[in-house]
Amino acid sequence: MSSDRSLVELLARPQGAHITKTPPRLDPRAKPSAQEAQDAVRTLLRWIGEDPSREGLQDTPTRVTKAFLEHFAGYTQEPHEILARTFSEVEGYDDVVVLKDISFESHCEHHMAPIIGRAHVAYMPNSRVVGISKLARLVEVFAKRLQIQERMTAQIADTIQEVLQPRGVAVMIEATHHCMTTRGIHKPGSLMVTSRVSGIFKTNPDTRREFLSIIGKSGAESLAR
Ligand SMILES: Nc1nc2c(ncn2[C@@H]2O[C@H](COP(=O)(O)OP(=O)(O)OP(=O)(O)O)[C@@H](O)[C@H]2O)c(=O)[nH]1
Ligand SMILES: [Zn+2]
Protein backbone atom coordinates (compact mmCIF):
# COMPACT_ATOMS: atom_id res chain seq x y z
CA MET A 1 0.00 0.00 0.00
CA SER A 2 1.44 3.39 -1.00
CA SER A 3 1.89 5.96 1.70
CA ASP A 4 -0.44 8.31 -0.24
CA ARG A 5 -3.19 5.77 -0.20
CA SER A 6 -2.85 5.04 3.46
CA LEU A 7 -2.99 8.76 4.17
CA VAL A 8 -6.19 9.09 2.11
CA GLU A 9 -7.74 6.17 3.92
CA LEU A 10 -6.72 7.59 7.22
CA LEU A 11 -8.29 10.96 6.46
CA ALA A 12 -11.47 9.29 5.20
CA ARG A 13 -12.09 7.63 8.54
CA PRO A 14 -14.46 9.26 10.96
CA GLN A 15 -12.60 11.53 13.31
CA GLY A 16 -10.92 9.61 16.05
CA ALA A 17 -11.53 6.21 14.45
CA HIS A 18 -7.82 5.62 13.99
CA ILE A 19 -7.35 5.83 17.74
CA THR A 20 -7.61 2.42 19.34
CA LYS A 21 -10.85 2.39 21.25
CA THR A 22 -10.71 1.86 24.99
CA PRO A 23 -12.06 -1.66 25.49
CA PRO A 24 -15.50 -1.65 27.10
CA ARG A 25 -15.24 -1.79 30.87
CA LEU A 26 -15.84 -5.32 32.11
CA ASP A 27 -18.77 -5.69 34.41
CA PRO A 28 -16.93 -6.92 37.51
CA ARG A 29 -19.90 -9.08 38.45
CA ALA A 30 -20.32 -10.67 35.02
CA LYS A 31 -19.78 -14.37 35.48
CA PRO A 32 -16.94 -15.91 33.48
CA SER A 33 -17.51 -19.28 31.86
CA ALA A 34 -16.29 -22.52 33.45
CA GLN A 35 -13.70 -22.66 30.67
CA GLU A 36 -12.37 -19.22 31.59
CA ALA A 37 -12.20 -20.21 35.26
CA GLN A 38 -10.29 -23.38 34.39
CA ASP A 39 -7.92 -21.40 32.18
CA ALA A 40 -7.26 -19.10 35.12
CA VAL A 41 -6.24 -22.12 37.20
CA ARG A 42 -3.90 -23.21 34.38
CA THR A 43 -2.37 -19.74 34.42
CA LEU A 44 -1.75 -19.99 38.16
CA LEU A 45 -0.20 -23.42 37.72
CA ARG A 46 2.20 -22.03 35.12
CA TRP A 47 2.84 -19.04 37.36
CA ILE A 48 4.11 -21.26 40.20
CA GLY A 49 6.39 -23.04 37.73
CA GLU A 50 4.25 -26.09 37.01
CA ASP A 51 3.36 -27.75 33.74
CA PRO A 52 -0.47 -27.88 33.55
CA SER A 53 -0.29 -30.47 30.76
CA ARG A 54 1.47 -33.13 32.82
CA GLU A 55 -0.67 -36.11 33.66
CA GLY A 56 -1.23 -35.37 37.35
CA LEU A 57 -2.38 -31.83 36.65
CA GLN A 58 -4.55 -32.38 33.61
CA ASP A 59 -7.80 -32.57 35.57
CA THR A 60 -6.70 -30.14 38.26
CA PRO A 61 -8.39 -27.04 36.76
CA THR A 62 -11.72 -28.91 36.69
CA ARG A 63 -11.22 -30.16 40.24
CA VAL A 64 -10.28 -26.71 41.51
CA THR A 65 -13.28 -24.99 39.93
CA LYS A 66 -15.53 -27.74 41.29
CA ALA A 67 -14.04 -27.23 44.75
CA PHE A 68 -14.59 -23.48 44.41
CA LEU A 69 -18.28 -24.09 43.73
CA GLU A 70 -18.38 -25.95 47.03
CA HIS A 71 -16.29 -23.45 49.02
CA PHE A 72 -18.32 -20.53 47.73
CA ALA A 73 -21.81 -22.05 47.50
CA GLY A 74 -23.12 -19.31 49.79
CA TYR A 75 -23.37 -16.81 46.95
CA THR A 76 -26.28 -18.72 45.47
CA GLN A 77 -28.30 -18.89 48.68
CA GLU A 78 -30.60 -16.31 50.19
CA PRO A 79 -30.00 -16.08 53.96
CA HIS A 80 -33.37 -14.54 54.78
CA GLU A 81 -35.22 -17.47 53.23
CA ILE A 82 -33.51 -19.92 55.57
CA LEU A 83 -35.25 -18.40 58.58
CA ALA A 84 -38.62 -17.96 56.88
CA ARG A 85 -40.32 -20.91 58.57
CA THR A 86 -41.01 -20.49 62.27
CA PHE A 87 -43.03 -22.30 64.94
CA SER A 88 -45.22 -20.69 67.54
CA GLU A 89 -46.42 -23.71 69.58
CA VAL A 90 -43.69 -23.50 72.17
CA GLU A 91 -45.80 -23.48 75.37
CA GLY A 92 -44.76 -19.95 76.12
CA TYR A 93 -41.04 -20.77 76.02
CA ASP A 94 -39.39 -17.40 76.06
CA ASP A 95 -35.91 -18.05 77.38
CA VAL A 96 -32.62 -18.05 75.61
CA VAL A 97 -32.06 -20.56 72.75
CA VAL A 98 -28.44 -21.37 72.00
CA LEU A 99 -26.81 -23.49 69.32
CA LYS A 100 -23.17 -23.72 70.21
CA ASP A 101 -20.08 -25.22 68.57
CA ILE A 102 -21.33 -24.91 65.00
CA SER A 103 -18.23 -25.83 63.05
CA PHE A 104 -17.61 -24.01 59.79
CA GLU A 105 -15.04 -23.56 57.07
CA SER A 106 -14.77 -20.24 55.34
CA HIS A 107 -12.15 -18.34 53.33
CA CYS A 108 -10.67 -14.95 54.03
CA GLU A 109 -11.22 -12.38 51.35
CA HIS A 110 -7.66 -11.10 51.55
CA HIS A 111 -5.77 -14.30 50.78
CA MET A 112 -8.55 -16.77 49.96
CA ALA A 113 -7.01 -18.91 52.69
CA PRO A 114 -9.20 -21.10 54.93
CA ILE A 115 -10.79 -19.78 58.08
CA ILE A 116 -11.67 -22.75 60.28
CA GLY A 117 -13.78 -22.19 63.31
CA ARG A 118 -16.86 -22.54 65.45
CA ALA A 119 -19.82 -20.26 65.82
CA HIS A 120 -22.10 -19.94 68.84
CA VAL A 121 -25.50 -18.47 68.05
CA ALA A 122 -28.16 -17.44 70.55
CA TYR A 123 -31.44 -15.60 70.45
CA MET A 124 -34.21 -14.73 72.86
CA PRO A 125 -37.43 -15.66 71.04
CA ASN A 126 -40.34 -13.36 70.69
CA SER A 127 -43.20 -15.91 70.71
CA ARG A 128 -41.86 -17.74 67.63
CA VAL A 129 -38.88 -20.06 67.28
CA VAL A 130 -37.03 -21.26 64.23
CA GLY A 131 -36.02 -24.86 63.45
CA ILE A 132 -32.67 -25.16 65.16
CA SER A 133 -30.88 -26.54 62.08
CA LYS A 134 -31.65 -23.25 60.36
CA LEU A 135 -29.20 -21.44 62.63
CA ALA A 136 -26.45 -23.78 61.44
CA ARG A 137 -27.61 -23.31 57.84
CA LEU A 138 -27.39 -19.56 58.28
CA VAL A 139 -23.80 -19.86 59.52
CA GLU A 140 -23.06 -22.05 56.52
CA VAL A 141 -24.44 -19.58 53.95
CA PHE A 142 -22.25 -16.76 55.20
CA ALA A 143 -19.24 -19.02 55.74
CA LYS A 144 -19.39 -20.21 52.15
CA ARG A 145 -18.45 -16.77 50.86
CA LEU A 146 -15.25 -14.78 50.94
CA GLN A 147 -15.25 -13.29 54.40
CA ILE A 148 -13.67 -11.35 57.12
CA GLN A 149 -14.68 -12.69 60.48
CA GLU A 150 -16.14 -9.45 61.78
CA ARG A 151 -18.53 -9.17 58.84
CA MET A 152 -19.56 -12.82 59.02
CA THR A 153 -20.36 -12.38 62.73
CA ALA A 154 -22.44 -9.28 62.06
CA GLN A 155 -24.24 -10.82 59.07
CA ILE A 156 -25.39 -13.83 61.08
CA ALA A 157 -26.61 -11.72 64.00
CA ASP A 158 -28.25 -9.07 61.84
CA THR A 159 -30.11 -11.58 59.67
CA ILE A 160 -31.59 -13.28 62.75
CA GLN A 161 -32.55 -9.90 64.18
CA GLU A 162 -34.16 -8.75 60.92
CA VAL A 163 -36.11 -11.90 60.10
CA LEU A 164 -37.14 -13.31 63.49
CA GLN A 165 -37.29 -9.99 65.32
CA PRO A 166 -36.44 -11.68 68.61
CA ARG A 167 -35.83 -9.84 71.87
CA GLY A 168 -32.11 -10.15 71.29
CA VAL A 169 -29.34 -11.99 69.45
CA ALA A 170 -25.81 -12.99 70.43
CA VAL A 171 -23.23 -14.47 68.07
CA MET A 172 -19.67 -15.40 68.92
CA ILE A 173 -17.17 -16.83 66.48
CA GLU A 174 -13.80 -18.34 67.28
CA ALA A 175 -11.63 -19.18 64.29
CA THR A 176 -8.16 -19.93 63.06
CA HIS A 177 -7.07 -17.99 60.01
CA HIS A 178 -4.78 -20.03 57.80
CA CYS A 179 -3.40 -16.83 56.32
CA MET A 180 -1.89 -16.31 59.77
CA THR A 181 -0.98 -19.89 60.59
CA THR A 182 0.39 -21.37 57.36
CA ARG A 183 1.83 -18.22 55.78
CA GLY A 184 2.71 -14.64 56.64
CA ILE A 185 3.31 -14.25 60.36
CA HIS A 186 3.01 -18.05 61.00
CA LYS A 187 1.27 -18.12 64.34
CA PRO A 188 -0.32 -21.57 64.65
CA GLY A 189 -2.78 -21.81 67.50
CA SER A 190 -3.81 -18.16 67.35
CA LEU A 191 -7.58 -17.82 67.56
CA MET A 192 -9.60 -14.82 66.47
CA VAL A 193 -12.69 -14.18 68.59
CA THR A 194 -15.51 -11.89 67.50
CA SER A 195 -18.95 -11.24 68.90
CA ARG A 196 -22.08 -9.31 68.08
CA VAL A 197 -24.92 -8.80 70.53
CA SER A 198 -28.17 -6.95 70.27
CA GLY A 199 -31.36 -6.34 72.25
CA ILE A 200 -31.52 -7.95 75.65
CA PHE A 201 -28.04 -9.46 75.28
CA LYS A 202 -26.75 -5.94 75.00
CA THR A 203 -28.84 -4.30 77.69
CA ASN A 204 -28.95 -7.06 80.30
CA PRO A 205 -25.62 -8.26 81.72
CA ASP A 206 -27.31 -11.35 83.23
CA THR A 207 -28.56 -12.52 79.84
CA ARG A 208 -25.13 -11.91 78.39
CA ARG A 209 -23.56 -13.85 81.25
CA GLU A 210 -26.02 -16.72 80.69
CA PHE A 211 -24.99 -16.90 77.02
CA LEU A 212 -21.31 -16.89 77.92
CA SER A 213 -21.81 -19.52 80.55
CA ILE A 214 -23.75 -21.81 78.18
CA ILE A 215 -21.01 -21.60 75.54
CA GLY A 216 -18.42 -22.26 78.23
CA LYS A 217 -16.99 -18.79 78.45
CA SER A 218 -18.07 -17.74 81.90
CA GLY A 219 -15.65 -15.20 83.25
CA ALA A 220 -15.48 -13.51 79.85
CA GLU A 221 -17.35 -10.46 81.04
CA SER A 222 -16.09 -8.11 78.38
CA LEU A 223 -18.41 -9.21 75.56
CA ALA A 224 -19.53 -6.14 73.62
CA ARG A 225 -21.86 -3.94 75.64
N1 LIG B 1 -9.73 -8.04 60.78
C1 LIG B 1 -9.56 -9.11 60.02
N2 LIG B 1 -8.41 -9.27 59.37
C2 LIG B 1 -8.25 -10.39 58.62
C3 LIG B 1 -9.22 -11.37 58.50
N3 LIG B 1 -8.73 -12.34 57.69
C4 LIG B 1 -7.51 -11.94 57.32
N4 LIG B 1 -7.20 -10.76 57.89
C5 LIG B 1 -6.01 -9.91 57.82
O1 LIG B 1 -6.06 -9.12 56.67
C6 LIG B 1 -4.82 -8.45 56.62
C7 LIG B 1 -4.43 -8.13 55.19
O2 LIG B 1 -3.30 -7.33 55.36
P1 LIG B 1 -2.31 -6.90 54.18
O3 LIG B 1 -1.17 -6.17 54.80
O4 LIG B 1 -3.10 -6.22 53.12
O5 LIG B 1 -1.87 -8.31 53.58
P2 LIG B 1 -0.51 -9.12 53.79
O6 LIG B 1 0.65 -8.31 53.31
O7 LIG B 1 -0.68 -10.45 53.14
O8 LIG B 1 -0.44 -9.23 55.37
P3 LIG B 1 0.17 -10.36 56.31
O9 LIG B 1 -0.90 -11.38 56.53
O10 LIG B 1 0.50 -9.62 57.58
O11 LIG B 1 1.37 -10.96 55.63
C8 LIG B 1 -3.85 -9.34 57.36
O12 LIG B 1 -3.46 -8.66 58.53
C9 LIG B 1 -4.69 -10.58 57.73
O13 LIG B 1 -4.29 -11.16 58.95
C10 LIG B 1 -10.43 -11.16 59.20
O14 LIG B 1 -11.36 -11.97 59.17
N5 LIG B 1 -10.56 -10.04 59.94
ZN1 LIG C 1 -6.24 -13.89 54.99
Which features characterize this protein?
alpha+beta, metal-binding, binds guanosine-5'-triphosphate, two-stranded antiparallel ribbon, binds zinc ion, GTP_CycHdrlase_I_dom, 21% strand, GTP binding, GTP-binding, 225 residues, five-stranded mixed sheet, GTP Cyclohydrolase I, domain 2, zinc
Q: How many strand elements?
A: 7
The main β sheet shows up as: 5 strands, mixed
Q: Roughly how much helix do the residues carry, as a percent range? A: 25-40%
CATH architecture of the largest domain: 2-Layer Sandwich
Q: How much strand content do the residues show?
A: 15-25%
The CATH topology of the largest domain is GTP Cyclohydrolase I, domain 2
CA radius of gyration: 26 Å
In short, what is this structure?
The protein is of the alpha+beta class and 225 residues long.
Description:
This protein is an alpha+beta fold and 225 residues long. The chain has two domains: 34-71, no CATH class; 84-214, GTP Cyclohydrolase I, domain 2, CATH 3.30.1130.10. The chain has helices at residues 3-12, 34-47, 60-71, 79-82, 133-143, 149-164, 178-181, 200-203, 205-214, and strands at 86-87, 97-108, 114-124, 129-130, 146-147, 168-177, 192-199. The strands form two sheets. The protein has a five-stranded mixed beta sheet, sandwiched between helices. It has a two-stranded antiparallel sheet with strand order 1-4. A hairpin with a 5-residue loop joins β2 and β3. The longest helix has 16 residues, at 149-164. The model is unreliable at 1-20 (pLDDT under 50). Bound molecules: guanosine-5'-triphosphate and zinc ion. Zinc ion binds next to loops. Guanosine-5'-triphosphate is lined by residues 108, 110, 148-150, 177, 179-180, 184-185.
